[in-house]
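Saturday, quiet lab. Running sequence design on the structure tokens for the scaffold JK sent over.
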């Protein structure tokens, strides 16, 4: 089985790119069952990584918007994105 991706281990763009590749491979329908299951599991992990990254970005945007409207905002704004991308 494929190693499960973790949000802190990969940047959003890399996770999304890998996920797109896996989807294309699975859509072809040419992989043996065991390999397809492994790719599917890896894809699920990558989709979870993407959701975590998007949620973090959404929270940061919400804080910025609240501050612009004169509402209280939490500081510092941190996005846990690594320098890989």
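Result came back. Writing it out in full:
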């Amino acid at each position: 089985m494929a190693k499960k991706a973790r949000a802190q281990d990969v940047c959003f763009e890399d996770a999304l790119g890998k996920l797109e590749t896996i989807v294309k491979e699975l859509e072809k329908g040419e992989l043996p069952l065991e390999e397809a299951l492994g790719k599917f599991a890896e894809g699920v992990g990558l989709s979870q990584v993407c959701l975590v990254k998007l949620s973090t970005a959404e929270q940061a945007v919400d804080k910025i918007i609240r501050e612009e409207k004169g509402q209280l905002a939490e500081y510092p704004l941190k996005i846990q994105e690594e320098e890989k991308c």
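Notes for JK: Residues 24 and 62 are 34 Å apart (CA to CA). Residues 7-68 form a domain with the Helix Hairpins fold (CATH 1.10.287.1040). Ask whether to fix the surface positions before the next round.
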